[in-house]
Fold:
Amino acid sequence: MPGNKLTHSPSPPSQAAPTTRHRIVEAARAHFFSHGFRSVIMDDLAADLGMSKKTLYAHFPSKVALLEAVLDNKFAGVEAKMKEVSRAHPHDFSAALHELLGNALREFDEIKPPFVRDMRQKAPQVFKIFERRRAELIERSFGKLFVEGQRAGMVRKDLPARVMIEILLAAVQAIVNPVKPQELGLTPKAAFEAVIKVVLEGVIIRKGEKP
Structure:
């Protein structure tokens, strides 16, 4: 498995292959995110989809390969939504921030603690890629937003946007991981929400404050 990106398993040449592959990924996504990676059995997944194990393994030769496809699917969807927000509110910091946070929290809510824990334990290389891609997504989305906020006079200018992003990424890395939310009695969504609230309260200029 390449170490720098999630890979896509090649689709068979038949016309039905993309539909079958999509069905497999969507079913695995629901099971993985809700119940964890370890508890999902490929044989049971094939039965749930009403297909043979041979068909399932023709598309995904291993559960790790299926995990990679599920994460590719997840990140592609999140990135598309983030781009929509940027296009819809190119110069409206408040609206973009509100919608960006709403989308981010909904995405985090789909991923339950058992999935992240199992991925870290059973597929550590994939987990590292997951963390890297999550960081890149946060950096692209919020980095651009912080710059726009500075231009609009709504984000403090005494700190470079790059520094604010590094603080945000470090906080996410420290708090939104498989162990810490459980220790704190939080879901990944609640942990991310707490991090965002703390960071944004420090960088956003309140009414009456000077930039």
Observations:
- The first helix runs from residue 17 to 35.
